[in-house]
Design brief:
By secondary structure, the chain is α+β, with helices and mostly antiparallel strands. Helices cover about 45% and strands about 20% of the residues. The protein is built from 5 helices and 4 strands; from the N terminus they run ααβββαβαα. A 4-stranded mixed beta sheet has the order 1-2-3-4, sandwiched between helices. A hairpin with a 4-residue loop joins β2 and β3. The N and C termini lie far apart (about 35 Å).
């Protein structure tokens, strides 16, 4: 059973703002899914055509145990052929264009822009 519906309901301010910015293909027409399941994990945002995962990390991600878990999780997701990009809550709120740029850069790398 997926946790995605519960995670969508309990998302923080940074995730809600990112979703408002990305929904409906707002960046170059690339659709982004929120709380998307990849393997055994649910990621914050995924752009399936680009195989790009966008993670928005709050302060808890600064803890050593969480960093280790994030690293192992990211390694497993990348082994499935995805690229993972992480942004802090602060960056997502104060420099949201960096997330847009990550989508554009990935699309350019794949020759889709």
């Amino acid at each position: 059973m997926t946790r995605a519906p519960d995670l969508r309901q309990s998302s923080g301010l940074a995730e809600r703002r990112v979703w408002a910015r990305l929904r409906g293909g707002a960046v170059e027409g690339f659709k982004v899914r929120r709380q998307h399941d990849i393997g055994r994990f649910t990621v914050d945002f995924a752009c399936v055509p680009l195989r790009l995962v966008l993670e928005i990390d709050g302060g808890v991600h600064d803890r050593d145990d969480v960093r280790v878990r994030d690293h192992l999780r990211q390694t497993e997701i990348e082994a499935l052929g995805w690229t993972v990009m992480r942004f802090t809550n602060e960056a997502a709120l104060s420099e949201p264009w960096r997330i847009d740029d990550a989508i554009r850069d990935r699309a350019r790398m794949l020759g889709l822009l």
